[in-house]
Design goal:
CATH superfamily: Vaccinia Virus protein VP39
Number of strands: 7
Strand content: 15-25%
Structural class: alpha/beta
Low-confidence stretches: none
CATH topology: Rossmann fold
Number of domains: 1
CATH architecture: 3-Layer(aba) Sandwich
Helix content: 40-55%
Oligomer: single chain
CATH class: Alpha Beta
Length: 278
Amino acid sequence: MSASNKDQEEFWTSNAGPTWVSHEGQLDAFLGPVLDQVLETADISDGHAVLDLGCGTGHSTLAAGQRVGPSGRVLGLDISATMIARAGERVAGLPHVNMALADAAVHPFEEESFDHVVSRFGVMFFADSQAAFRNIARALKPGGKMTLATWGQIPRNPWFTLPAAIAKAELGAPPKSDPDAPGPFAFRDIDKVCTMLRAAGFAEVSGVAHDMVFSLPGGMAEVAELSLKVGPAAGTIKHFSADQAAQNRIETAMAQAFEELGRAGITAEINFFTATKS
């Protein structure tokens, strides 16, 4: 683990990790459309070797494993001990799918060993993204493809902005964070990311923003409930040590606000990037 990523390792292991494990089923379903688009764009098939960056609890690694079949192989990588332990449980019994607790920015990958690198929301947290992608490029075979999904522009992602505003109205403003620092929106600027990937040695780099809709079986009420546990509202609640009464008021306000959107799901802007190892 690089010293520069220690804060991320601690956050995803001790803070966010247990929450993601607890709500694994909801998050897999809610973010499923993004994973589907990543794998479709990557065009993974039988026999391919795939590296899954920031695999979390393993949903993306399992899906890639299904596509490559027993003749292929998939390695899921994450810095969270909590999440990688759960991912390991999910792939138990699949000899062609493996997990590793490691920092992709510095991990000594076997050179030119993968046909594809994929990631759903797993690459926005590097302290030095350009250096990290140089290291990741070492793992790709010449002509190998990288496919990434990241959050797009902040105002176009109400799953973040709406809960954040409601929690702030109830509790006050938490310490301001830098959206360009490692975090969910660090890759929101497509041109900036494409320039960085080219500088890291990738060719045929492209990025495009997609409008998507996320939903859950319980409708917008369930989406609101999940947003209370994962994301900026959860961070604000923890920062202010909000009591149960305040949490209940926030949940009620979020459920009403989400229902007033009048949709079967919540809209999101997702950036998809592709690049090739030259």
